[in-house]
Automatic annotation (TrEMBL):
This is Cellobiose dehydrogenase-like cytochrome domain-containing protein. The keyword Signal applies. Residues 1-19 form the signal peptide. InterPro entries: Cellobiose_DH-like_cyt (IPR015920), GMC_Oxidoreductase_CD (IPR053208). Keywords: Signal. Residues 29-208 form the Cellobiose dehydrogenase-like cytochrome domain. It comes from the Eukaryota. CDD domains: CDH_like_cytochrome (cd09630). Gene3D superfamilies: Cellobiose dehydrogenase, cytochrome domain.
Amino acid sequence: MRTALFTAVTALVAPVVLGQERDPSSELYTDSSSNITFNTWSPSPFVTIGLALPPDALETDTDEFLGLITCSDPAGWCGVSLGGGMVSNLLVLAYPSPSNPEKILTSLRWASDYGPPIEPYNGDAKLSQILSTINATHYQVLFRCEKCLGEWRQGEEQQGGSFPSSGGFLLFGWCHASSAPFGEAECADKAEVSQHDSQGLFGAEVTSFTLAPSAEEYALWAGKASGGMVDDECVA
Ligand SMILES: *[C@@H]1O[C@H](CO)[C@@H](O)[C@H](O)[C@H]1NC(C)=O
Ligand SMILES: *[C@@H]1O[C@H](CO)[C@@H](O)[C@H](O)[C@H]1NC(C)=O
């Protein structure tokens, strides 16, 4: 009796305590091999972006996150801007390796204008892969991105920054191109890309659904990121 009452009260109270509902444009996704749960957004049929933030990211601005990018075109490349438009925002480029189709290459980039060159990013932000998968129709990469949110620098200078996570809203950009990166594309930081075929912005509401359930769980998930950039054969 007591248990039943307690359960009933909890059921009534819990949603109020959390005070939050999942952003209806998002979908929860648990990756079966890492067991990491991401809240995901699919702003385009080509691109899905997932986020898992530290559990206190709504109280304390986080400068890191665990990310997922799924791209539905293994012949091309996808990009995500961690702040909105492509100019003066940290950009993540992802594409299948031209020489090793098992591997997804990732590179942090920077654009000071709309158009090439999309330079390699030179600053504190660091992306390390957790795992990647590829099949005939999709490729997916899971990663940890440190010093990737909040204020960031390119070279010596403060260049911009994303919205603070405590504000409950992050703005991202996405793009997709159907043509493969070229040039020295075996090396993700040297790969050149032609203009994307589609692009857009989307807002990600940060709710409890976007947060790891506990600091322990976040540390466990983040600890799986030992894969480095997987920028591959970057011979100087
Ligand atoms: C997967 O994660 C959930 C919570 O995030 C946890 O309860 C469960 O035990 C985990 N499963 C495995 C196999 O690690
Ligand atoms: C291919 O990979 C995507 C993304 O990981 C997945 O959603 C899809 O089910 C996979 N397709 C097949 C046929 O396994």
